[in-house]
Design a protein that fits this description.
CATH topology of the largest domain: Aminoglycoside 3'-phosphotransferase, Chain: A, domain 2
CATH superfamily of the largest domain: Aminoglycoside phosphotransferase (APH), C-terminal lobe
Structural class: alpha+beta
Largest sheet: 5 strands, antiparallel
Number of strands: 9
Strand content: 15-25%
Radius of gyration: 20 Å
CATH architecture of the largest domain: Alpha-Beta Complex
InterPro entries: Kinase-like_dom_sf (IPR011009)
Shape: globular
Order of helices and strands: HEEEHEEHHHHHHEEEEHHHH
Helix content: 25-40%
Number of domains: 2
Distance between the termini: 36 Å
Length: 329
């Protein structure tokens, strides 16, 4: 398993700034090492109660932007959504983090000098699902996806999924034929033009009035309650939007299979898509998602999270297999 920087490994100036913002002293910290960003993700036990905190150097531009976006969008969630409450964003200026406060660089975010961004949320008294996601734990996460998709959102409150969904990656693969594409199923390469034509409808297919988490997987869910009454809470909401009610359940299924769980068809037999879901719309969205995973897997490793490309490849392969079955080829 990957390892994030821990609370004790943050620059002392950053720890001091967090405690000042909390108005409390940190007694202990528990690191959550899953996920795909390079920063701290820890539940802090403090004199004022537990709090979940994420922190990353501003030099990690993508993660810093996503952390800020998560707080901004989480504050727009409708009441009653199974999500932790966003508390605050804290900027720690570079001038407050002298170079001698920074631990020796070991390739993780704790070794970065300069400004930091810290975000805080209510702590959830839950546990991460096991891998592979199966049985009651899978039922709980799939049920969470259906519950989120059952929340209706008024226009203008959140961004539209149709505007944010990557829906040109398959077409770009068809045009560029990048190095490494031939390591995928030959069927995909042979049918890229046909699949790109289906992808053209993905944005429209993603439209809807439902709440969409946008990145729901096992590592973005926490399980709460006893085994006989297990339910799940969704965390990490930077991509929340308004769109098709089926999206979160469909989008999580390649990851479920990629990590050793059941096939999408097996999951959907227990947790059907919402009534009235259009099969062609699902296929168009699946093509867009699969094209995205394949395209991203062929890119160089991003700084701080080299393991993400392998996971994207595994999801791309699971998506391709599902597409072949859906299209009967």
């Amino acid at each position: 398993m990957r390892r994030r920087p821990t609370w004790s490994e943050l620059p002392p100036a950053v720890r001091a700034a967090v405690e000042e913002r909390l108005g409390a002293t940190v007694r202990s910290a528990s690191s959550h090492d899953g996920g795909y960003s390079p920063g701290l993700a820890s539940t802090l036990t403090t004199t004022g109660g537990p709090v979940f905190v994420k922190a990353v150097p501003v030099s990690e531009e993508f993660s810093a932007r996503v952390y800020r976006q998560e707080v901004e969008r989480s504050r727009l969630l409708p009441d009653g959504v199974p999500a932790p409450r966003a508390r605050w964003v804290l900027d720690v200026p570079a001038d407050d983090v002298p170079a001698d406060d920074v631990p020796a660089d070991d390739g993780r975010a704790s070794g970065s000098d300069g400004a930091w961004v810290v975000v805080a949320f209510d702590a959830v008294a839950g546990r991460a699902p096991a891998t592979p996601l199966v049985g009651p734990e899978l039922d709980a996460v799939a049920g969470l996806a259906r519950r989120i998709g059952g929340v209706e959102v008024a226009p203008g409150v959140l961004p539209e999924l149709a505007d944010e969904l990557p829906h040109t990656c398959t077409a770009a693969l068809s045009d560029a034929r990048p190095q490494g594409l031939d390591t995928y199923d030959p069927w995909f390469v042979e049918h890229l033009d046909d699949l790109a034509a289906r992808e053209e409808h993905a944005a429209d297919a993603a439209r809807g009035r439902a709440l969409v988490h946008g990145d729901l997987r096992a590592d973005n869910a926490l399980l709460v309650g006893p085994e006989h009454y297990l339910h799940a809470v969704a965390v990490d909401w930077p991509y929340v939007s308004r769109g098709a009610a089926f999206f979160d359940l469909v989008a999580m299924l390649p990851a479920v299979q990629a990590e050793g769980g059941p096939t999408p068809e097996d999951v959907l037999a227990r947790h059907p898509l919402p009534a009235g879901t259009d099969d062609d719309a699902v296929t168009a969205v699946l093509v867009a998602l699969t094209g995205y995973f394949v395209a991203m897997s062929l890119e160089p490793d991003p700084p701080g999270i080299p393991h993400v490309r392998a996971f994207q490849r595994a999801q791309g392969e699971a998506g391709l297999a599902w597409l072949r079955r859906r299209l009967g080829t």
